[in-house]
Amino acid sequence: MDRRIDSYLKQMIDEDRLSFFEEVAAFAQKRIAPELLTLEREHRLVPDGLLREMGDLGLFGLPIEAEYEGQGGGQLELVLMGLALGYHSHSFAITPGAATSLGSKPLQLYGSPEQKRAHLPDLARGRRMFVFGLSEPGRGSDAANPEVTATKDGSHWVLRGEKCWSTNARWASHVIVHALTNPDGRPGYRSTCFLVPMDAPGVNYSEMSGKLVWQQSSTGSIAFQNVRVSESAILGRPNEGFKVMVTTLNGGRLFVASLAVASLAFALDRVRHYAQERVQFQDKPIGRFQRVQDVVVDLDIALEQSLTWLIHATKLFDQGVLGREQAAKVKVECSRVASHLMLEAMEVCGGVACLDEFGLMRHHADLFVTRVGEGSNRALKTQIAQPLLPNIKDLLD
Question: How would CATH label the architecture of 131-240?
Fold first, then answer.
């Protein structure tokens, strides 16, 4: 099945990056697509062998500097990877995606020289992963005020509480824990990020069961029972964990947007080919009906618009000039449009769209995560509204 997205990307990115996208897309077509149905039906996570192959491709080291054995790329390479892998499977895309944008990126931005030397080379090669511990059972959108606490005890800190919805928890060697350290501090200066080994005494991980989205992705709950860490475990500066979190999520939202756009690209290709193959009413293809054509055209317009905006925003991010409201808007709109048009695509295809082997139902389910992951769309709209309504001091009231 030829991809419409390729023709648009040729107009938006240089030849080297286009070659990278095509290489990853070819890998996904050859190695991931044939495995998906079996993995889904057997309820298995991404196999270790494919993790190693993605590591050999350098996908876990895309944004890591060459001095730490990475590829030296930027957010644009991550987004292109999301588009290439997400076309078939969000689960496969988010595995290296979260490992880089949520795992190694905070270390790159805020890690000490010692922390970088100790971890980045292995992270770049895919020999280990970091998981970002942010969401909690009682804290979702209000991530700035974590319930996990870290209290000072002599020269150490003691962590207590639980994180959930932690992507890649099964494979993680360390978890970056966003914990409350200064409850009485001013907003934005109440928390600290800690780098904690997953095998440290008192750290307990369990895979979250019953999940019907991103089914090949590891999603874990991580509990901390009096976990003691030293000052050297602090990532960034004490009581500035909010800064680490916000900076990390900006890039993560662009990556999540790339998954939504990838689903949109898949739906367009699936529907336009099906509309030419499926015959009804005097043995003519259903693509001759204007209502079917309307859906195909709407998908194509949305793909070009979403992709253009996403690539532009990602380039601004790599230049260091993308505001967090802009990143939020891209994520909100790409996920919203893709979710709406996916249903339209499924209606055109009818009952066959319900079959797992057809692929649309997988994308329909996975698109839900793009609406609530990296900040729910409902909460992000409040963030987007703040610069538009500057005279309202607190939009949350």
Answer: Beta Barrel (2.40)
